[in-house]
Amino acid sequence: MRRLAWSLSLILVLGIASARAQNDDSTLCRTGNGDVSIAACTRLIGSGKFKGHDLAVFYNRRGAVYESLTDLDHAIADYGDAVRLDPKFAAAFNNRGNVLRKKHDLDHALSDYFEAIRLDPKAATFYNNRAIAHNDKREYDSALADLNEAIRLDPRMAMAYANRGWTWRAKNDSTHAIADFDEAVRLDPKNAFAVYNRGLTYHKSDLSHAMADYEEAIRLDPKYAAAYFSRGVGFNARNDYDRAIADFSEAIRLDPKMATAFANRGWTWRTKNDLTRAIADFDEAIRLNPTYAYAFQQRGISYHNKNDYNRAIADYDTAIRLDPRNATNFYNRGQALRTKGDMDRAIADYDEAVRLDVKYALAYRDRGGAYLIKEDFDLAIANLSVAIRLAPNDALAFVNRGQAEALKGDFAAAATDADQALGLSPNNSAARNLRGFAYKGMGDLNRALPDLDEAIRLTPNLARAYANRGDVYREKGDFDRAIADFGEAIRLAPDNTAAYTSRGLAHEQKGNLDLARADFSAALALPQTRSVTAKAALETARTRLAALSDARLVEPAKPVESPKPVNVTKPIDPVKPAVTTGQPERRIALVIGNSNYRSAPGLPNARRDADAIASALRGVGFQTVTLQNDLSKDKLGEALRNFARQAEQADWALIYYAGHGIEMSGTNYLIPVDARLETDRDVQFEALPLDQVLSSVEGARKLRIILLDACRENPFARQMRRTVASRTIGRGLARIEPDGGTLVAYAAKHGEVALDGEGDNSPFVTAFVKHIATPGVEINKLFRLVRDDVLAATGRRQEPFVYGSLPGEDFYFKPPVAAAQ
């Protein structure tokens, strides 16, 4: 009996100890931390003494501990066992939904939340959590519906208000967002999430309020990395870069995997011109998140700033691949391509940028700049005008548009744009230089000089300002100062063809012919560019060098007298003829080549002919030669209006037109490139009458010349539908009788068709360019010589003809050399 009692006593003691151990494990499982809690829950699960809901509770608890340790796979497994053991365990479905959401498996997460709510439709927390998943999927209306229900079920649930505020902010409804964040903070003043997100909502409209909220969020939670990050962004907005870097660094210390903090710190280092540190931070941001388009974009900008354009373009390529709807990525790549000189690809990128964002002012501005470099001045002006409309405070847009206007010969418009730029940016040296150039073009040398002086004072290495000031001094007859300025322009920009040519002209006018020859030779030895200015300079250098090499040239005994102000379209002005005494004549020209017709076959020679005529006119001393190609009707009319205003201040005014023309019922018309002429009735609406061209030169004081190379075989006449039987369409152009002092030269006699010829230029242009450069050929004889050459070159199939009469005075494109004696 005693032995039995002892045994029973031992069993009782062991049973009490076992029960105490299970009670301890239950406590540790429910309230313990980390591995201790997991071990306790595991012992309880493995004891075999619990089933159904009781066992499910331990799996659910262990899953929660795994979740807290970010061991999400084990957490999901435990929550799965919990709902397997108890399919009505709503909290376990909710908890598994939370982990699935953290793993970005949003569809399965939502499925679990829906089941949790079905099992317990009055649990406000479940609606709140499902709303977060909807937000992650950008299903903001569904999220709002869930958060409204959560708040209805629990009006004091601060997190539901905070999450609803987040959703309103995502929908760009800042008013509702701030109201919800305010309520969340009222219910829970220590809710750092609500305070921080309220700061984010204020950030764009009230930075001071936003910064105060970031400060408070950090005070409430000193380990809140996102709050440090956003405060750093705020410091950047205030240009307080050192404090921004400190905040980004703290965010990185708290969360070393925060790629956005590295990227934004990189942005700040770049702003401080520390490109090495910037690139290192962008490298780390990309390592942490290889699909982070913004980091590639910003690293590309940093490489661009280091002049490493190939790496920059490679990063922009990746940014575009990752984020193809980001207009800035295309714009940035366009900038790099433009800097490399690849204008066509740059323009293609600007095109895509404005397609993606039709209000992208910078893309319009810099596309205009690219067209300016390509010397497509009409498209440049059109793009820059849009940029100015979108961003009226952009001084550079006004400067660039003014440059395009000046190069088109519209100096008044250029001066106006320079005024606008200086109003926005008084110390803008480019605007000062532009206005000085425009005043020089208008012949107002006394106003040009102070602006160019100021441009050089503001930017002492601005080569083009020295070149422009040199032109002013040369036109004023101050050759020593002109030569000094051209020398400085060449020192600053050794490949400046125009400066070498202009200095050569100054040396020639001063009588230093050896130095002039050296400068003209140096200009011709430089690498050739596509620039109109450079091509004009080369043509002038070639012409003057040939003239100086001619043994018959008589060296002037003294420099020419100081000329009055003249108007120049390009910063190159050919030397004045040696026969000039007193004030030189002012000669201007408008040269038009219409090659690329939209509704008819093109005329490749027209553009080449226009280039040849423009160069020849510059070579014989025309001060302003405005060259324009492929003009629509509106642009053609605008060019003639502008030229008419300039002609009122000129002695000679000449217009050359190469392109299609047509005669209908005795009236001659020039055909713009956008004309369709489907019927004969369309001619008077889509073409430009020759009378309008004649009106454009009538203001010139001495001589008015129209050269029409528009008598070619006309494709419009063949395709045009006739609406009036009596309306006649002629072959070639009809004869005209201009007023006295006006000559109109047809490349082919009225009723005949001009030939394009077999070379780069038409027979008419080839002959004209040849004879215009010959000294001492009076103008009437010149056209007779041109006629003879064209008849010979075409086997007498084409005969040029001149209409009009001149007064008794002799007129020369290039005066006799002997007069220099």
Q: What topology emerges from the helices and strands here?
A:
Layout: H1 2-31, H2 34-46, H3 52-68, H4 72-85, H5 90-102, H6 106-119, H7 124-136, H8 140-153, H9 158-170, H10 174-187, H11 192-202, H12 207-220, H13 225-237, H14 241-254, H15 259-271, H16 275-288, H17 293-305, H18 309-322, H19 327-339, H20 343-356, H21 361-373, H22 377-390, H23 395-407, H24 411-424, H25 429-441, H26 445-458, H27 463-475, H28 479-492, H29 497-510, H30 513-525, H31 532-549, E1 587-593, H32 604-619, E2 624-629, H33 633-647, E3 652-658, E4 661-664, E5 667-670, H34 683-686, E6 688-689, H35 690-697, E7 703-709, H36 715-719, E8 742-746, H37 763-772, H38 779-793, E9 801-803
Parallel strand pairs: 1-2, 1-3, 3-7, 7-8
Antiparallel strand pairs: 4-5, 5-6, 8-9
Helix pairs in contact: 1-2, 2-3, 3-4, 3-5, 4-5, 5-6, 5-7, 6-7, 7-8, 7-9, 8-9, 9-10, 9-11, 10-11, 11-12, 12-13, 13-14, 13-15, 14-15, 15-16, 15-17, 16-17, 17-18, 18-19, 19-20, 20-21, 21-22, 21-23, 22-23, 23-24, 23-25, 24-25, 25-26, 25-27, 26-27, 27-28, 27-29, 28-29, 29-30, 29-31, ...
Walk me through the structure.
By secondary structure, the chain is mainly alpha-helical. The chain is built from 38 helices and nine strands. The strands form two sheets. Strands 2-1-3-7-8-9 form a six-stranded mixed beta sheet, with helices on both faces. β1, α32 and β2 form a beta-alpha-beta unit. α7 runs parallel beside α9. It is elongated. The protein starts with a helix and ends in an 18-residue tail after the last strand. The N terminus is likely disordered.
